[in-house]
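ok trying this again, last paste got cut off
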Amino acid sequence: MHFNIANILSWRSLSLILDVLIIWFLVYHLVVLIRGTKAVQLAKGIVLIFAVRIIAGILQLHTTTWLIDQIVSWSVVGIIIIFQPEIRRGLEHLGRLPIFGEREDSQRDESLKFIDELDKSIQYMSKRRIGALITIQQETGLDDYIETGIKLNAHVTGELLINIFIPNTPLHDGAVIIDKDHKIAVAAAYLPLSDSSMIPKRLGTRHRAAVGISEVTDAITIVVSEETGGVTITRNGRLLLDMTREEYLKYLTAQLVPKQHKNEKWYQKIVRKIWKWGADR
């Protein structure tokens, strides 16, 4: 028998490999999708039923085999009903795949939503003069400072930020650090204080900490003054004092929202618009 590489690379062999890879991909993403949900226990039950069916077939338990076959024959409808939330979530995830610039648009939408949540919290705290210190990671890592805080790993919402900085609560003293994925990594973190003589004497510890972190990293830090309610942003040693809402929104948008590329082909625009049609309806 002669070894022939053409037999290995035949379409039948390649289709078999492709078939296995597709099934592996689907099973893997199904496991990721249902992990941490109540569907995990249901999936274990289904696996147990199939295991019993195999054993019953081997032992020639005809009544048990017939009963399980009846259950399995109706299982497709049952799975659709039971796993309806997970199936819907999976289809929504599939619809957000990065096709024809969809990923870039998605990043822009996420960044704009992130800024909107920041604005919601800043406006609330500024009007009520609730002191706040929020540091947003950029390219430079903030692991040394993250280690000093209380881990949260939570999505950024205006309500959560407001609750963190409410006076006399366990997390209000210190800084919130938001990582590059726009998640709140920690609260009550300690930042280095600046010794700069350029900082006005009237400014307190929060502002010195904001300038301090901006001197050693490229992070953007937002300060809400407890005394005046003024909003200050620091970055790269710069101190932008008492910014209006329009000013800080313009600054954050310029720094955090990805720029749109102008070199998209006409057919890509058409396909992208068709793909996105109805997404926001």
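PB: full thing came through this time. The CA atoms of residues 42 and 48 lie 10 Å apart.
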